[in-house]
Amino acid sequence: MIKSRVKERSYKLPTHHEHSLITTGFHLPYNPQLIAQTREMRKNPTPAEKKLWYEYLRAYKPRFLRQRPIDNYIVDFYCAQRKLVIEIDGDSHFTDEGIEYDQARTHILEGYGLRVMRFTNKEVLENFDAVCAAIEEIPPTPLDKGGYPESPLGKRGEGGSQRGPLQQSLD
Q1: Does 18 score more than 50 pLDDT?
Q2: Less Cβ around it within 10 Å: N or C end of the chain?
Q3: In sequence order, which residues have a C-beta less than 8 Å from that of residue 156 and are 6 or more positions away?
């Protein structure tokens, strides 16, 4: 039997205290209290994170990091050179509370000049080539401050559906 880890995230928005973040001038600010959790998450990736990392991003140039703390958050994948965050979303992200949390989180990450791409677990596991192609199409530098839509494959959660946009288009 395969034991998979489900990401459990509290959807309480963190208090944004600048003094609790480490800033070095080289790295983006991060909360040092998240370091132990990031290490644990790297050891126990979800099946979708594991697939995207080992079959694609690990060898991708420029370099991606996985489970990287930025501000008071842990992002799934981060590429400093491209100023890009890739998030793999499970079911908990499609509740009203989860969507609100992700929107606030994305707003803060974009405030650092980062672009945020989102894919669902199902998109990564069942439409891997399309996910990789969407990542390949990213220009090396942002063309606008607004970033990318939540999923470059379409709008997330249209009509209240918990299925990803790529899955909806395949119906």
Answers
A1: no
A2: N
A3: 89, 94, 118, 120, 149, 150, 164, 165
